[in-house]
Specification:
heterodimer, A: 11 strands, B: mainly beta, seven-stranded mixed β-sheet, globular
Chain lengths: 113, 115
């Protein structure tokens, strides 16, 4: 079983709609959870991180965490063509940046005009 | 914001040779650096964690004698791929974190092609 699992996609969403990305993880001891966006051939860039159960909103992005279900999701509202990218879910066993981050394989998101 | 720079951004080398990739933190002291490898359409796979002045901690399945990591200063870590083979061709990415805060910064990545 992979430590962090994501549907590889592609997920196609019309412009302006809500894109929903999901992720499950196997290590119950995971403490920090991240969503990164990666454009082809580029390094990942951090979109959001979440530590506590519940929702965390930042602009058009909402991260949701359910530790009991070992489930993390990312909602993108008012999707734009520029949101088309691969979205990587990542988890860490610690709360500090000195802890290693394990990445999922990513979900390719395509926003169609 | 903090910047982590990798060099070279791409390199082509002959099979059997060694190649070094540098990862520098430009405006903060990086106490911890991470090295990842990413094959096309796959996720980032953590190779090793290095703390300044200490030996790197390698992930299971990563050959420490083939992928030499040096973190000799608080602003520089290097990854040397020794006796490179075509299957080592990949995108190598470093990330770094400092003493304060809880943010990790990624380098731009380095494309390695072994021919």
């Amino acid at each position: 079983q992979k430590e962090v699992e994501q549907n590889s996609g592609p997920l196609s969403v019309p412009e302006g709609a809500i894109a929903s990305l999901n992720c499950t993880y196997s290590d119950r001891g995971s403490q920090s959870f991240f969503w990164y966006r990666q454009y082809s051939g580029k390094s990942p860039e951090l979109i959001m991180f979440i530590y506590s159960n519940g929702d965390k909103e930042d602009g058009r992005f909402t991260a949701q965490l359910n530790k009991a279900s070992q489930y993390v999701s990312l909602l993108i509202r008012d999707s734009q063509p520029s949101d088309s990218a691969t979205y990587l879910c990542a988890v860490s066993p610690g709360y500090s940046s000195a802890s290693k981050i394990i990445f999922g394989s990513g979900t390719r998101l395509s926003i169609r005009p | 914001g903090a910047v982590v720079s990798q060099h070279p951004s791409w390199v082509i080398c002959k099979s059997g040779t060694s190649v070094k990739i540098e990862c520098r933190s430009l405006d903060f002291q990086a106490t911890t650096m991470f090295w990842y490898r990413q094959f096309p359409k796959q996720s980032l796979m953590l190779m090793a964690t290095s703390n300044e002045g200490s030996k790197a901690t390698y992930e299971q399945g990563v050959e420490k004698d083939k992928f030499l990591i040096n973190h000799a200063s608080l602003t520089l870590s290097t990854l040397t791929v020794t006796s490179a083979h075509p299957e080592d061709s990949s995108f190598y990415i470093c990330s770094a974190s400092g003493r304060s805060g809880n943010t990790i910064y990624f380098g731009e990545g380095s494309w390695l092609t072994v021919v």
